[in-house]
Specification:
The protein is mostly beta strands. The chain is built from 1 helix and 9 strands; from the N terminus they run E-E-H-E-E-E-E-E-E-E. The strands form 2 sheets. Strands 1-2-3-7-6 form a 5-stranded antiparallel β-sheet. Strands 5-4-8-9 form a 4-stranded antiparallel β-sheet, with no helix packed on it. The chain starts with 6 loop residues before the first strand and ends with a strand.
């Protein structure tokens, strides 16, 4: 899929099934030095960078949510065909990103941007953001030379 192109998917949330419109907006890439600061052991990030996917989710139909959302659980990042390694807790301070567990009220028509941070190879040429429903084929957005 192209940047800005949307997909529609369903997620089983706590109060019931919700239909979302999903758009991978952009991928921010760090330097190797920034990646080394972000991980517990700097040696683990040698030759690696961080890729932060910004994904916008719009609640299209279904019950209103009152206690967070699981929609971001279907998001992953690939770099040159290799699955990245998720970096838990790295996006709380990323500008423009929200924590899905802090969303206390989400009604149809409202949108939120959730971010996922992955450690990828510093030599990667193409970054892909994948999102899929439970057991579904992924929607794939490609960000060449991200």
């Amino acid at each position: 899929m192209k940047t800005g192109e949307s997909a529609t998917g369903k997620v089983e949330e706590d109060p019931g099934e919700v239909t979302y419109e999903i758009v991978a907006q952009k991928v921010d890439i760090s330097t190797e030095a920034e990646a080394q600061k972000a991980v517990a052991n700097a040696e683990d990030a040698k030759g690696k960078i961080l890729a932060v996917a910004h994904v916008k989710y719009t609640h299209k139909s279904g019950p209103a949510l009152t206690d967070g959302s699981d929609v971001g659980d279907g998001t992953t990042i690939f770099a040159d065909g290799q699955h990245g390694s998720v970096l838990i807790g790295a996006t709380e301070d990323e500008q423009g990103c929200e924590d899905p567990h802090d969303v206390e009220s989400w009604k149809p028509g409202e949108s939120h941007v959730f971010c996922e941070t992955y450690v990828i190879s510093a030599t990667a040429k193409n970054v892909e953001v994948h999102w899929s429903e439970d057991d579904g084929d992924p929607y794939v957005w490609t960000f060449p030379n991200a």
